[in-house]
Amino acid sequence: MKNLKGAYTIWYRDVLRFARDRVRMVSALGQPLLYLFVFGTGLAPAMSAQTGGALDFRQFMFPGILAMAVLFTAIFSAVSIVWDREFGFLKEVMVAPVSRTAVALGKVAGGATVAVFQGIIVLILAPVIGVKLGFDQIVMLIGLMLLLAIVMTSFGILIAARQRSMEAFQMMMQFLLMPMFFLSGAFFPLRGVPLWLSWLSRIDPVTYGVDSLRQQVLSRSVPASLMASLALHPLATDVVVMAALAVAFIVPAVWQFGRQE
C-alpha cells in the first residue's frame, strides 16, 4: 500500500502539473495543427488524384498526427526527471521510504496519462477533416493511444534516467524522435518503399502505433479494398508488438532508474 500510494502521488503530480499549465496544452497542439492543416492541405490534391478521390490526404495523415501528439508529449514528459534532478526534487524522492520501482512506474503512468489527454484533444478535430468515428472506435483509439504512450514514456524514462543535463536529453531526443516519427509511415504509405526503408520502419516502435491508429480511424471512412492496401499488419499484431515493446522498455527503465545515486 505504501508503494501504491507513492506511485499514485508521482502520477498525480505529473497530471496536476499538466492540468495547470495551459500554455503547455496549447503549444503542444501547434505542431500537429501545422502539419494537419498546412502540410496536409497543400498535398491533399496529389493524394486525392492517386486514390481516385477516395481518400483525402488529411484523413490519411490524421492517425499520424494523433501519434505525433502522443509521441512528443510522452517522450518529453520524461524530461521532468532531468529537471527534478537539476533542482534537487529527485533527491528527496529517492530518499523517501518508497520503492524506486514504484516511483518509476508512477512516472510512466503520469507521462502516459498526459500524452493520452493530449491525443484526445487532437481527436476532437476528426469531424473537421471529414473523419467519421463511432463510440466503439473512439474507445479503441484511446486504448491504442494509451498503449503507444506507455511504450514511448518508458523509452523516454530509459534515456532520461542516465542524463545529467536538460541540454543533453533534448539533443538525444531530437536525434531519435524525428527519425522515429518520419519512418513510421505517418506521412506516406510504407507499401512499395525501398527495402532499406521497409526494414527501418519495422524496427521503429512508432510504426505499429501509427498503423493500428490508421486502421481504426479510416475503417469507416474509406473502402475496405483501399484500407487493406494501406494497412501494414493485422491490428492484433500491432497490439501484441506494442505490448511487448512496453515490457521491453519498462523493465530496463525501472532498472536504470533504481541505479541512480
Plain-language structure description:
With 261 residues, the chain is mainly alpha-helical. It has one domain (2-258). The protein is built from 12 helices and no strands. Helix 7 (135-160) packs antiparallel against helix 10 (205-218).
What would the principal axes of the Cα set say about the shape?
Answer: elongated
Instruction: Note poorly predicted spans.
Output: none
Average pLDDT score: 80
- Specify the biggest β-sheet: none
Number of domains: 1
How many E strands? 0
Order of helices and strands: HHHHHHHHHHHH
Oligomer: single chain
Beta-strand content estimate: under 5%
How many DSSP H or I helices? 12
Q: What structural class results from the helix and strand content?
A: mainly alpha
What helical percentage do the residues reach? over 70%
The end-to-end span amounts to 25 Å
Work out the radius of gyration.
Answer: 19 Å
Question: Would you kindly provide a brief summary of this structure?
Answer:
The protein is an all-alpha fold and 261 residues long.
Write a concise keyword list for the protein shown above.
261 residues, 12 helices, 0% strand, elongated
Secondary structure topology:
Layout: H1 2-20, H2 22-50, H3 57-77, H4 79-87, H5 89-94, H6 100-123, H7 135-160, H8 166-182, H9 195-202, H10 205-218, H11 224-230, H12 235-258
